[in-house]
Write a structure and sequence with these properties.
The complex is a heterodimer. Chain A contains 24 helices and 27 strands. By secondary structure, chain A is α+β, with helices and mostly antiparallel strands. Chain B folds into two domains: about 100 residues, no CATH class; about 200 residues, Orthogonal Bundle (MetI-like fold), CATH 1.10.3720. Chain B is about 70% helix and about 0% strand. The longest helix of chain B is centred in the middle third of the chain and has 36 residues. Chain B is extended and about 80 Å long. Classes of the chains: A alpha+beta, B mainly alpha. Chains A and B meet through α1, α5, α10 and α24 of A and α2, α3, α6, α8 and α9 of B.
């Protein structure tokens, strides 16, 4: 009896505690914690290897490269992070003589960046720094017995720290050439950083011949990078490469102390998957304290963070939006950020509405519930969202999706012939990107007028920004030219009504594209419909990404669809996609259309080394005009990010390049609790109805059983 | 029995070898080492030299099956097939190509959440399906039986996706009985298991109940049932004791084979080699379980 009572009490207690949809422990309530989600396992948290936005949202809070972007200013502006100031390059000729700042590019043999770092910056507490009383590292030679109790980084009893020194930056640059790390920017950087290629070759040789457990990079000098003193280092760059400053704002150039590599190279730790790819070590405002891909990723305030303040100034309109309320206050504001595994959009969305996530994107399933598009195409929140105090913030991604023509190997759409150029112009007009954005992107995109998206220097707005070969400026708006214009161009190109005027053959074009599943069918049909407007027959050749890439590499295509996300906010990072010497077929570069225009190339070479200003803008205008006239791409679209935020999350200003904004965000946990209380009231009557139905069925069944037993008894009685 | 198990395991070896070769061949036709390198290194700024280095570091620059540059056994050993496949027979899955993580260690750490959902769903689902089927058989020929059959057919006809969405809507959004998704470490995990287990049980109830009902209906007309009834054994006891025990062989045939797969979840089942291993283990356990429920069955 006592046992039954105990069991009943336990069940009752469990049920009572279960009657709640809060996915977090009670201890999280009212805490200064930011609640968010992640959708897949993070592969690389090593700053020399990581190169995806999923990973950057974490490591950008942990590592501090020399530079960072101003959180509020637009256009994007570089400011110091772990460096004391943004370095100014010095230029030298082949004899080592210093050249003035405005020296002609052809005279510059190399550039020198001297970077001074802040003093007193300390690393987060980490076992790799832990030392015993004799000053020896405790965990650098772990025995099997010691390893037996270690499964996660938190299992290490002791931690330590040390001051950041210039050698840590130099060590990380050497890691870019490490043959086992396979840094994605090694190829690019080896063209600029003096000695990086030679270092890689040497390391590769040692690695192949000796196969050491640990390759101590301290023993292998990198000629182009030197430590001046504990707080200064120099990087020697071949020629002039102003964009190097942008790279200095990326985690690839964040400091990594040699102790970290020494610690993580232990075989026992590798076997237990304790590595730099799993547990990063940095000097930033946050440190990663949990990385469980089944469960949660947790960032907590780094107790050793050197301190920083919220920006004192912002862009126009920021003050009115309340983005300068915290100006000058020390950051970070939030104690920890908890990211929960959330693979599906429906639970994510519901948890956001229930107040269990602070922010959310908008999937196509929830779009209509969240956003209303007005007649003039503007996106606004629905009344329901507004009533909940939710805010919508949109931002243009520094990305372009474009349709490229094969300019080198295709005789119909490619090359410099006038007929091909007119054909490309005609197709560009026919391909109605406004309709595409409306149908397939829920208005989350802007038709591209050139390769440059908003926020990138050289992008122009309104009538100055339209592509005059595709659009007209009518009543203050860009209006796509009528299809008749395209048909006329097509006729001039030698294809009246979509037929070759010489042979009478119908014009058939081929679009190479990735995908091909059932979901893609409507999109492919739409592409065909656009070409059909000109009576051109389009054949869509869909394939998997590997085959697609192979076709592009070999130049085995006519038209293709691809995209590009900027590494840094400079027009060079878009224009180089059309720079002749970067031809994919000829030189395995990033110019997939294999476009070649001598004038454009010359302007590109001039523009890429210039500082932003009127002179550079003039050249950019000229380059854009050449591209619009030649039309090697149909300009596609720039995607727009729509994000929703609850009103308890403050200081939100998306920065698609920087991704290090967590330190500036502020949470009002009390408001969050109140919201949860208000919006999580259960509706229990349907549950009662179901229970009643079940009880009715049981009662009927019991009565039926009793009747049957009664009948049996009657039969037995009669027989007796 | 020991000899029988050994023999079955020996039979499995050529099957696994065949599966391994076919999987390997298909895999390398679809995704070549170059593709793998590009997949892992990304699209931006990658040079052919980096691709070669990536392949070299992971042994993907070796020939596929025969290394003509080597001598003796090394001709076989110094190939991608040998290096990547042979260790599978010792259930050593090596390290991930992406970030060099030890796959065995990852499986040992990450299988527990899958198991925490799969085992209760399996056990509760089995009990519920058998009980429901028994009750339908008990009330056979009545309106309750008809209602039950209609209900099971409806349950069978609904997409499993619908159960998930409806379950999340009702239990988390409307009634607030459980979190809509997530997981918690330790004992608190049970709050997060309720929803997937309930959905798993209900979504499998239609097919399961129908299947067991047909098994029990076949048994109910046997002579031993008639004899038991003639002796005055109560109907419930006839069903839950005698019929259930005699229906165990067909039940076990369908049930035991899936038990090993519970440890890994569906994702691992999709990797052909491990899927084949688990399937063979499941079949062997099924054969062994026959001897436990039916003394007439002997393994020889």
């Amino acid at each position: 009896m006592r046992f039954t009572k105990t069991v009943l009490l336990i069940v009752l207690a469990l049920l009572t505690s279960a009657c709640d949809n809060n996915p977090y422990p009670a201890s999280f309530s009212d805490k200064n914690i930011r609640l968010s989600a992640f959708s897949s396992r993070l592969k690389y948290l090593d700053p020399a290897r990581s190169y995806s936005s999923d990973e950057y949202q974490f490591i950008r809070q942990i590592y501090e490269p020399p530079l960072q972007y101003h959180y509020l200013k637009r256009p994007y502006t570089l400011i110091p992070s772990s460096a004391t100031e943004v370095p100014k390059p010095q230029y030298f000729d082949a004899n080592g003589n210093a050249l003035p700042e405005n020296a002609p590019v052809e005279k510059i043999d190399h550039s020198l960046y001297e970077i001074s770092i802040k003093r007193g910056v300390k690393y987060q507490p980490h076992p790799c720094f832990a030392r015993n009383d004799q000053g020896q590292f405790i965990y650098h030679n772990l025995s099997e017995q010691e390893l037996s109790t270690l499964h996660e980084l938190s299992d290490f009893e002791k931690t330590g720290s040390r001051e950041l020194v210039a050698n840590d930056f130099v060590y990380q640059i050497k890691r870019l050439a490490h043959p086992r790390i396979n840094s994605p920017i090694y190829g690019l950087m080896s063209e600029y950083i003096v000695g990086l290629r030679e270092l890689n070759e040497r390391l590769q040789k040692v690695n192949d011949e000796q196969k050491p457990d640990y390759l101590d990079l301290e023993n292998y000098p990198l000629t182009g990078v030197e430590v001046v003193d504990d707080y200064t280092y120099r990087v020697k760059i071949k020629g002039k490469y102003p964009q190097f400053l942008y790279w200095l704002a990326m985690p690839f150039f964040a400091p990594i102390p040699p102790e970290v590599d020494r610690f993580y190279s232990q075989k026992g730790l590798i076997k237990r998957n304790i590595s730099l790819n799993w547990y990063p070590v940095g000097t930033g405002p946050y440190m990663l304290t949990m990385n469980n891909p089944n469960y949660r990723i947790i960032l907590e305030k780094n107790p050793n963070f050197h301190g920083e303040v919220y920006p004192l100034e912002g862009a126009a309109g920021d003050k009115e939006l309340g983005l300068l309320v915290d100006a000058g206050k020390p950051v970070p504001f939030i104690d920890s950020a908890i990211y929960t595994l959330e693979k599906e959009t429906i639970p994510y969305w519901n948890k956001f509405l229930q107040g269990y996530y602070d922010a959310s994107g908008i999937s196509s399933d929830n779009f209509d519930q969240a956003v209303a598009i007005s007649a003039d195409g503007n996106a606004t929140l629905t009344d329901d969202m507004r009533d909940k105090g939710i805010r919508l913030i949109t931002s243009v991604r520094p990305t372009i999706f474009y349709f490229g023509f094969n300019m080198m190997l295709d005789q119909v759409v490619g090359g410099t012939a006038e007929s091909a150029r007119l054909l490309r112009q005609a197709i560009s007009i026919a391909m109605d990107m406004e309709e595409f954005i409306s149908i397939f992107l829920n208005e989350r995109g802007l038709p591209a007028q050139s390769p440059l998206p908003q926020g990138i220097f050289g992008h122009r707005e309104e009538d100055k920004g339209i592509n005059p070969y595709v659009y007209d400026w009518v009543n203050g708006k860009a209006k796509r030219k009528p299809i008749e214009t395209a048909r006329r161009l097509l006729a001039q190109a030698g294809y009246p009504n979509g037929r070759n005027e010489k042979t009478g053959e119908p014009l058939v074009l081929y679009l190479d594209i990735t995908g091909g599943g059932a979901d893609d069918k409507s999109r492919f049909d739409w592409y065909r419909k656009q070409f059909a407007k000109l009576d051109i027959q389009l054949i869509v050749r869909a394939t998997d990404y590997s085959r697609f890439r192979e076709k592009i590499q070999k130049g085995n295509f006519q038209i293709f669809l691809w995209g590009w996300h900027a590494d840094y906010p400079d027009p060079e990072n878009f224009f180089f996609l059309l720079y002749g010497p970067h031809s994919k077929v000829k030189n395995s570069g990033e110019n997939a259309a294999n476009y070649q225009n001598d004038k454009f190339d010359a302007l590109f070479e001039q523009m890429k080394n210039m500082d932003n200003g009127e002179a550079r803008l003039k050249i950019i205008d000229e380059m854009i005009e050449i591209l619009r006239y030649d039309a090697p791409w149909m300009w596609g679209f720039h995607p727009l990010d729509f994000s929703l935020y609850h009103d308890w999350e403050q200081n939100v200003k998306p920065h698609p390049i920087a991704n290090n904004g967590l330190k500036y965000l502020r949470i009002d946990a009390k408001t969050r609790e109140e919201y949860r209380e208000k919006h999580n009231q259960p509706v229990l009557w349907p549950l009662g109805l179901i229970l009643i139905l079940i009880i009715v069925v049981i009662v009927l069944a019991v009565r039926l059983y009793q009747q049957r037993e009664h009948r049996k008894l009657e039969v037995l009685t009669q027989n007796n | 029995m020991f000899n029988y198990i050994l023999r079955r395991l020996a039979y499995a070896l050529p099957i696994l070898l065949g599966v391994n070769i076919i999987t390997f061949a298909l895999f390398f036709v679809v995704i070549t080492p170059n593709d793998m390198a590009r997949l892992h290194l990304g699209d931006k700024h990658i040079t052919q030299e980096q691709i070669q280095q990536w392949k070299h570091e992971r042994g993907y620059d070796k020939p596929l099956f025969i290394n003509k540059d080597s001598q003796g056994f090394d001709m076989v050993k110094e190939t991608i097939f040998y290096q990547k496949s042979i260790s599978l027979f010792f259930l050593d899955f090596g390290t991930s190509d992406a970030d060099r993580r030890d796959i065995n260690y990852d499986i040992s750490q990450r299988m527990w959440p899958s198991l925490a959902i799969a085992v209760p769903t399996f056990i509760v689902g089995l009990l519920v399906n058998i009980t429901m089927a028994m009750l339908l058989v008990f009330f056979r020929g009545t309106h309750i039986d008809t209602l039950g059959v209609v209900l099971t057919v409806i349950l069978m006809s609904i997409s499993s996706l619908f159960y998930i969405i409806a379950g999340q809507f009702l239990m988390s959004k409307l009634w607030h009985l459980a979190p809509i998704s997530g997981y918690e470490l330790g004992f608190d995990a049970w709050r997060f298991l309720i929803l997937p287990v309930v959905i798993g049980v209900i979504s499998g109830m239609g097919a399961g109940t129908r299947w067991y009902r047909s098994i029990f209906l076949e048994e109910i007309n046997r002579d031993y049932v008639r004899t038991a009834r003639a002796k005055g054994v109560p109907e419930l006891k006839v069903l839950f004791k005698h019929v259930l025990q005699n229906a165990m062989i067909p039940i076990l045939t369908g049930v035991v084979v899936v038990i090993p797969a519970l440890f890994m979840g569906n994702l691992i089942m999709e990797t052909l080699f491990l899927g084949s291993v688990l399937y063979i283990i499941g079949l062997i356990i099924t054969d062994i379980s026959y001897t436990w429920v039916d003394p007439r069955v002997r393994l020889s």
